[in-house]
Amino acid sequence: MKLPIYLYGHPVLRKVSTDITPEYPGLAQLIADMYETMYDSDGVGLAAPQIGRNDRIVVIDASPLAESFPELDGVKLTLINAHLEVLDGEKVTRAEGCLSLPGLSENVNRVEHIRLQWVDENFQPHDEEFSGFLARIIQHEYDHLEGKVYVDHISAIRKQLIKSKLNNIAAGKVRPDYPVRFAPRRK
Predict the structure, then answer these.
(1) Would you name the residues annotated as active-site residues?
(2) By the 8 A CB rule, do 134 and 92 touch?
(3) Host domain of residue 169
(4) Do the beta carbons of residue 183 and residue 170 sit within 8 Å?
(5) Overall number of domains in the chain
(6) What are the tens digits of pLDDT across the range 65-103?
(7) Could you tell me which of 138, 31, 40 has the C-alpha nearest to residue 84?
(8) pTM for the whole thing?
(9) Residue 152 belongs to domain with CATH number
């Protein structure tokens, strides 16, 4: 089932997510719904806060980027209870977009090498290092679990320049071509 994407300005995107247990009700269906929602929205990653749940669940399918980044061909990950460690390494600036911030793209400076600990959909533990563009995707989605969005990493001057666009998203003045949930209106 396609789920609505929660847009910038919604409070759920600013809450730190919590770990889940294997007893989480309907987990397999939720993961399937998250993949369907991500594919329908033309995304390569989706975190549970983006569908209104503050649970540490992320789905990634980086395959659509394989033409530009061949190492991403066939990369599909389900990350549960992920915890990230930034490893030493060079920072690289690249453009990023986000389903929760439709119509925006900004340059974000991120490290190129990370270590991630998580369990998969069967609650099997993993501990791996990632580099390059996949490390960027993981950091972007991980930020959602920590109550952050990618524009939190841009300069104050740049953020001021896009303030009206951010305000329009938060006010519900955008209409992406996928189902969305806007921030509650202030009374």
Answers:
(1) 141
(2) no
(3) 5-181
(4) yes
(5) 1
(6) 999 999 999 999 999 999 999 987 789 999 999 999 999
(7) 138
(8) 0.96
(9) 3.90.45.10
